[in-house]
Write a structure and sequence with these properties.
332 residues; alpha/beta; binds 2-O-methyl-1,6-di-O-phosphono-D-mannitol
Protein backbone atom coordinates (compact mmCIF):
# COMPACT_ATOMS: atom_id res chain seq x y z
CA UNK A 1 0.00 0.00 0.00
CA UNK A 2 1.35 3.46 -0.88
CA UNK A 3 1.08 6.13 1.77
CA UNK A 4 2.99 8.65 -0.36
CA UNK A 5 0.29 11.28 -0.88
CA UNK A 6 -0.94 11.01 2.74
CA UNK A 7 2.59 11.59 4.02
CA UNK A 8 3.18 14.53 1.67
CA UNK A 9 -0.03 16.11 2.94
CA UNK A 10 0.81 15.50 6.61
CA UNK A 11 4.36 16.84 6.23
CA UNK A 12 3.08 19.95 4.45
CA UNK A 13 0.42 20.50 7.12
CA UNK A 14 2.95 20.22 9.95
CA UNK A 15 4.78 23.34 8.75
CA UNK A 16 2.04 25.23 6.88
CA UNK A 17 1.31 28.91 7.38
CA UNK A 18 3.87 29.43 10.13
CA UNK A 19 2.25 26.98 12.51
CA UNK A 20 4.66 24.98 14.65
CA UNK A 21 4.87 21.78 16.66
CA UNK A 22 4.55 21.50 20.42
CA UNK A 23 7.22 19.09 21.67
CA UNK A 24 5.50 17.59 24.72
CA UNK A 25 7.37 14.28 24.47
CA UNK A 26 9.53 14.47 27.58
CA UNK A 27 10.04 10.97 28.89
CA UNK A 28 8.66 10.48 32.41
CA UNK A 29 12.11 10.82 34.07
CA UNK A 30 12.73 14.14 32.26
CA UNK A 31 9.29 15.54 33.08
CA UNK A 32 9.70 14.40 36.67
CA UNK A 33 12.98 16.33 36.89
CA UNK A 34 11.30 19.46 35.50
CA UNK A 35 8.29 19.10 37.80
CA UNK A 36 10.41 18.49 40.89
CA UNK A 37 12.57 21.53 40.20
CA UNK A 38 9.37 23.57 40.57
CA UNK A 39 8.02 21.63 43.54
CA UNK A 40 5.39 19.76 41.48
CA UNK A 41 4.64 16.11 42.14
CA UNK A 42 5.11 13.77 39.18
CA UNK A 43 2.67 10.88 38.91
CA UNK A 44 0.78 9.19 36.06
CA UNK A 45 -2.19 11.47 36.87
CA UNK A 46 -0.34 14.75 37.38
CA UNK A 47 1.53 14.29 34.10
CA UNK A 48 -1.79 13.61 32.36
CA UNK A 49 -3.41 16.70 33.94
CA UNK A 50 -0.49 18.89 32.86
CA UNK A 51 -0.62 17.69 29.28
CA UNK A 52 -4.39 17.83 29.06
CA UNK A 53 -4.18 21.43 30.28
CA UNK A 54 -1.67 22.23 27.52
CA UNK A 55 -3.69 20.61 24.73
CA UNK A 56 -6.99 22.19 25.81
CA UNK A 57 -5.59 25.72 25.56
CA UNK A 58 -8.25 27.75 23.69
CA UNK A 59 -7.35 28.38 20.02
CA UNK A 60 -4.16 26.31 20.25
CA UNK A 61 -4.67 25.00 16.70
CA UNK A 62 -4.41 28.59 15.37
CA UNK A 63 -0.66 28.38 16.07
CA UNK A 64 0.15 24.71 16.59
CA UNK A 65 -0.23 22.10 13.83
CA UNK A 66 0.83 19.05 15.80
CA UNK A 67 2.18 17.81 19.09
CA UNK A 68 4.76 15.15 19.88
CA UNK A 69 3.80 12.72 22.63
CA UNK A 70 5.68 10.28 24.82
CA UNK A 71 4.23 6.73 24.83
CA UNK A 72 2.63 7.24 28.26
CA UNK A 73 0.59 10.25 27.09
CA UNK A 74 -0.26 8.59 23.78
CA UNK A 75 -2.04 5.83 25.69
CA UNK A 76 -3.75 8.08 28.24
CA UNK A 77 -7.29 9.45 28.19
CA UNK A 78 -8.53 12.94 28.94
CA UNK A 79 -10.51 13.52 32.12
CA UNK A 80 -13.60 13.05 29.90
CA UNK A 81 -12.43 9.56 28.87
CA UNK A 82 -11.33 10.38 25.32
CA UNK A 83 -8.04 8.95 24.08
CA UNK A 84 -5.43 11.69 23.72
CA UNK A 85 -4.88 11.08 19.95
CA UNK A 86 -8.66 11.26 19.38
CA UNK A 87 -8.89 14.39 21.49
CA UNK A 88 -6.09 16.06 19.49
CA UNK A 89 -7.79 15.04 16.25
CA UNK A 90 -11.00 16.71 17.39
CA UNK A 91 -8.97 19.91 17.81
CA UNK A 92 -7.40 19.56 14.33
CA UNK A 93 -3.97 18.95 15.89
CA UNK A 94 -1.82 16.16 14.42
CA UNK A 95 -0.53 13.49 16.80
CA UNK A 96 3.16 12.66 16.73
CA UNK A 97 5.01 10.09 18.79
CA UNK A 98 8.58 9.91 20.07
CA UNK A 99 9.84 6.49 19.03
CA UNK A 100 13.50 6.51 20.01
CA UNK A 101 14.32 4.85 23.29
CA UNK A 102 16.92 7.39 24.29
CA UNK A 103 20.55 8.32 23.85
CA UNK A 104 22.81 5.60 25.31
CA UNK A 105 26.61 5.55 25.78
CA UNK A 106 28.37 4.83 22.52
CA UNK A 107 30.56 1.76 22.99
CA UNK A 108 34.23 2.78 22.92
CA UNK A 109 33.20 6.46 23.21
CA UNK A 110 31.73 6.70 26.71
CA UNK A 111 31.45 10.50 26.53
CA UNK A 112 29.23 10.33 23.48
CA UNK A 113 25.89 8.73 22.75
CA UNK A 114 24.05 6.73 20.13
CA UNK A 115 20.28 6.97 20.05
CA UNK A 116 18.62 3.58 20.24
CA UNK A 117 15.19 2.17 19.40
CA UNK A 118 15.41 0.47 16.00
CA UNK A 119 14.59 -3.04 17.25
CA UNK A 120 10.94 -3.81 16.63
CA UNK A 121 10.36 -0.29 15.34
CA UNK A 122 8.25 -1.31 12.31
CA UNK A 123 5.75 -3.09 14.53
CA UNK A 124 5.60 -0.20 16.99
CA UNK A 125 5.05 2.28 14.15
CA UNK A 126 2.24 0.17 12.69
CA UNK A 127 0.54 0.11 16.09
CA UNK A 128 0.97 3.85 16.66
CA UNK A 129 -0.45 4.53 13.20
CA UNK A 130 -3.49 2.36 13.89
CA UNK A 131 -4.10 4.36 17.08
CA UNK A 132 -3.89 7.77 15.40
CA UNK A 133 -0.24 8.84 15.02
CA UNK A 134 0.60 10.56 11.73
CA UNK A 135 4.19 11.53 12.46
CA UNK A 136 7.09 10.43 14.66
CA UNK A 137 10.26 11.83 16.13
CA UNK A 138 13.79 10.53 16.78
CA UNK A 139 16.47 12.67 18.40
CA UNK A 140 20.21 12.17 17.98
CA UNK A 141 22.41 14.01 20.45
CA UNK A 142 25.82 15.37 19.42
CA UNK A 143 28.15 16.94 21.95
CA UNK A 144 30.82 19.55 21.19
CA UNK A 145 33.92 19.55 23.39
CA UNK A 146 37.14 21.16 22.19
CA UNK A 147 38.46 19.86 18.90
CA UNK A 148 37.98 16.19 19.84
CA UNK A 149 34.21 15.95 20.18
CA UNK A 150 32.15 15.06 18.35
CA UNK A 151 34.04 12.07 17.01
CA UNK A 152 33.43 10.95 13.46
CA UNK A 153 32.10 7.70 14.91
CA UNK A 154 29.37 9.54 16.84
CA UNK A 155 28.35 11.61 13.83
CA UNK A 156 28.25 8.67 11.40
CA UNK A 157 26.48 6.18 13.66
CA UNK A 158 23.82 8.69 14.69
CA UNK A 159 23.25 9.81 11.09
CA UNK A 160 22.89 6.18 10.03
CA UNK A 161 20.37 5.44 12.81
CA UNK A 162 18.35 8.58 12.01
CA UNK A 163 18.05 7.51 8.39
CA UNK A 164 17.15 3.91 9.33
CA UNK A 165 14.38 5.29 11.54
CA UNK A 166 13.16 7.72 8.85
CA UNK A 167 12.97 5.03 6.19
CA UNK A 168 11.08 2.67 8.52
CA UNK A 169 8.62 5.48 9.31
CA UNK A 170 7.92 6.16 5.66
CA UNK A 171 7.47 2.44 4.97
CA UNK A 172 4.74 2.42 7.64
CA UNK A 173 3.03 5.61 6.44
CA UNK A 174 4.35 7.84 9.22
CA UNK A 175 6.10 11.16 8.56
CA UNK A 176 9.50 11.23 10.32
CA UNK A 177 10.79 14.26 12.16
CA UNK A 178 14.56 13.89 11.86
CA UNK A 179 16.19 15.59 14.84
CA UNK A 180 19.97 15.84 14.94
CA UNK A 181 20.61 18.02 17.98
CA UNK A 182 24.05 19.58 18.42
CA UNK A 183 24.01 20.55 22.08
CA UNK A 184 24.62 24.15 23.08
CA UNK A 185 26.23 23.05 26.38
CA UNK A 186 29.87 24.09 26.56
CA UNK A 187 32.28 26.87 25.78
CA UNK A 188 32.40 26.62 22.00
CA UNK A 189 32.21 29.52 19.58
CA UNK A 190 29.60 30.19 16.91
CA UNK A 191 32.20 29.16 14.31
CA UNK A 192 32.69 25.76 15.96
CA UNK A 193 28.93 25.28 16.15
CA UNK A 194 28.72 26.12 12.44
CA UNK A 195 31.46 23.62 11.61
CA UNK A 196 29.92 20.78 13.63
CA UNK A 197 26.31 21.43 12.59
CA UNK A 198 27.44 21.53 8.95
CA UNK A 199 29.26 18.19 9.27
CA UNK A 200 26.28 16.61 11.04
CA UNK A 201 23.69 17.82 8.51
CA UNK A 202 25.96 16.74 5.67
CA UNK A 203 26.19 13.17 7.01
CA UNK A 204 22.50 13.03 7.88
CA UNK A 205 21.47 13.96 4.34
CA UNK A 206 24.01 11.55 2.80
CA UNK A 207 22.46 8.76 4.87
CA UNK A 208 18.89 9.86 4.10
CA UNK A 209 19.78 9.86 0.40
CA UNK A 210 21.49 6.46 0.54
CA UNK A 211 18.49 4.95 2.32
CA UNK A 212 16.04 6.53 -0.16
CA UNK A 213 14.13 8.64 2.31
CA UNK A 214 11.67 10.96 0.51
CA UNK A 215 12.58 14.50 1.52
CA UNK A 216 9.11 15.91 0.83
CA UNK A 217 7.68 13.41 3.32
CA UNK A 218 9.88 14.39 6.26
CA UNK A 219 10.49 17.38 8.52
CA UNK A 220 13.97 18.32 9.77
CA UNK A 221 14.29 19.45 13.39
CA UNK A 222 17.80 20.89 13.75
CA UNK A 223 19.46 22.87 16.49
CA UNK A 224 20.44 26.44 15.71
CA UNK A 225 24.01 27.44 14.98
CA UNK A 226 24.71 29.18 18.28
CA UNK A 227 27.59 29.82 20.71
CA UNK A 228 27.97 27.44 23.63
CA UNK A 229 26.07 28.47 26.76
CA UNK A 230 29.32 29.08 28.63
CA UNK A 231 31.19 30.84 25.81
CA UNK A 232 32.86 34.10 26.73
CA UNK A 233 31.78 36.17 23.74
CA UNK A 234 28.40 34.84 22.75
CA UNK A 235 27.23 35.65 19.23
CA UNK A 236 24.43 38.17 18.76
CA UNK A 237 20.92 37.06 17.70
CA UNK A 238 21.58 38.46 14.21
CA UNK A 239 24.79 36.41 13.92
CA UNK A 240 22.98 33.27 15.12
CA UNK A 241 20.25 33.80 12.52
CA UNK A 242 22.66 34.42 9.63
CA UNK A 243 24.94 31.50 10.50
CA UNK A 244 21.99 29.12 10.96
CA UNK A 245 20.34 30.05 7.67
CA UNK A 246 23.66 29.81 5.82
CA UNK A 247 24.28 26.36 7.30
CA UNK A 248 20.79 25.06 6.45
CA UNK A 249 20.98 26.50 2.91
CA UNK A 250 24.28 24.67 2.40
CA UNK A 251 23.03 21.31 3.62
CA UNK A 252 19.23 20.97 3.54
CA UNK A 253 17.71 20.11 0.14
CA UNK A 254 14.95 22.47 -0.99
CA UNK A 255 12.55 19.52 -1.35
CA UNK A 256 12.50 18.87 2.41
CA UNK A 257 8.91 19.62 3.50
CA UNK A 258 10.06 22.00 6.21
CA UNK A 259 12.41 22.84 9.01
CA UNK A 260 11.01 23.00 12.56
CA UNK A 261 13.70 24.21 14.94
CA UNK A 262 14.36 22.97 18.46
CA UNK A 263 15.11 25.48 21.23
CA UNK A 264 17.83 23.46 23.01
CA UNK A 265 17.86 25.33 26.33
CA UNK A 266 17.59 28.91 25.03
CA UNK A 267 15.21 31.18 26.88
CA UNK A 268 11.70 31.34 25.44
CA UNK A 269 12.15 34.95 24.27
CA UNK A 270 15.54 34.23 22.69
CA UNK A 271 14.19 31.23 20.76
CA UNK A 272 11.35 33.33 19.33
CA UNK A 273 13.69 36.16 18.37
CA UNK A 274 16.05 33.79 16.55
CA UNK A 275 13.14 32.33 14.61
CA UNK A 276 11.94 35.81 13.64
CA UNK A 277 15.38 36.95 12.49
CA UNK A 278 15.89 33.80 10.42
CA UNK A 279 12.59 34.29 8.62
CA UNK A 280 13.51 37.91 7.99
CA UNK A 281 16.39 36.59 5.88
CA UNK A 282 13.89 34.99 3.48
CA UNK A 283 12.63 34.00 1.05
CA UNK A 284 13.95 30.61 2.16
CA UNK A 285 13.81 27.32 0.22
CA UNK A 286 11.61 25.62 2.87
CA UNK A 287 9.07 26.74 5.48
CA UNK A 288 11.06 27.54 8.64
CA UNK A 289 9.10 27.14 11.86
CA UNK A 290 9.40 25.83 15.42
CA UNK A 291 9.12 22.54 17.30
CA UNK A 292 9.98 23.81 20.74
CA UNK A 293 9.68 21.98 24.04
CA UNK A 294 11.00 24.13 26.86
CA UNK A 295 10.67 27.42 24.96
CA UNK A 296 6.93 26.81 24.61
CA UNK A 297 6.22 25.18 27.94
CA UNK A 298 8.49 26.81 30.54
CA UNK A 299 6.34 29.89 31.35
CA UNK A 300 3.21 27.71 31.49
CA UNK A 301 4.93 25.25 33.82
CA UNK A 302 6.01 28.06 36.14
CA UNK A 303 2.39 29.28 36.26
CA UNK A 304 1.14 25.72 36.86
CA UNK A 305 3.57 25.37 39.76
CA UNK A 306 2.38 28.65 41.22
CA UNK A 307 -1.30 27.75 41.00
CA UNK A 308 -1.78 24.12 40.05
CA UNK A 309 -5.25 23.62 38.66
CA UNK A 310 -5.57 27.21 37.42
CA UNK A 311 -5.98 26.32 33.76
CA UNK A 312 -6.49 29.85 32.54
CA UNK A 313 -3.29 31.13 34.09
CA UNK A 314 -1.09 28.42 32.61
CA UNK A 315 -2.91 28.31 29.26
CA UNK A 316 -2.51 32.05 28.76
CA UNK A 317 1.27 31.53 29.07
CA UNK A 318 1.29 28.75 26.48
CA UNK A 319 -0.95 30.79 24.16
CA UNK A 320 1.44 33.73 24.54
CA UNK A 321 4.49 31.70 23.48
CA UNK A 322 2.71 29.78 20.72
CA UNK A 323 1.23 32.91 19.14
CA UNK A 324 4.56 34.78 19.39
CA UNK A 325 6.37 31.94 17.61
CA UNK A 326 3.63 31.72 14.99
CA UNK A 327 4.12 35.45 14.33
CA UNK A 328 7.91 34.96 14.18
CA UNK A 329 7.54 32.15 11.64
CA UNK A 330 5.32 34.42 9.54
CA UNK A 331 7.86 37.27 9.45
CA UNK A 332 8.60 38.29 5.88
C1 LIG B 1 10.60 17.51 24.98
O1 LIG B 1 11.91 17.01 25.18
C2 LIG B 1 12.35 16.00 24.25
C3 LIG B 1 13.30 15.03 24.89
O2 LIG B 1 12.80 14.46 26.00
P1 LIG B 1 13.68 13.30 26.70
O3 LIG B 1 15.04 13.91 26.97
O4 LIG B 1 12.93 13.02 27.93
O5 LIG B 1 13.73 12.17 25.76
C4 LIG B 1 13.23 16.60 23.18
O6 LIG B 1 13.55 15.66 22.19
C5 LIG B 1 12.59 17.74 22.54
O7 LIG B 1 11.54 17.29 21.72
C6 LIG B 1 13.57 18.52 21.70
O8 LIG B 1 14.87 18.52 22.24
C7 LIG B 1 13.12 19.95 21.61
O9 LIG B 1 12.94 20.44 22.92
P2 LIG B 1 13.62 21.80 23.29
O10 LIG B 1 13.26 22.00 24.74
O11 LIG B 1 15.10 21.62 23.05
O12 LIG B 1 13.00 22.84 22.36
Amino acid sequence: MSYKSDMEAVAAKMVAGGKGILAADESSPTLTKRFEALGLQSTFETRRDWREMLFSTPDLSNWISGTILFDETFRQQTSQGVSIPDYLKSLDILTGIKVDTGAKPLPSRPNETITEGLDGLSQRLAEYRSLGATFAKWRAVIKIEGEDLPSRTAVLTNAHALARYAKLCQSEGIVPIVEPEVLMDGLHSLERSFEVTSAVLHEVFCELWDQEVAYNQMVLKPSMVISGKGAADRATPQEVASASVECYKNHVPASVAGIALLSGGQSDVEATEHLRLMNELGPLPWPLTFSYGRALQDPAMAAWAKETGNLELAQSQLAGRASANFAAANTR
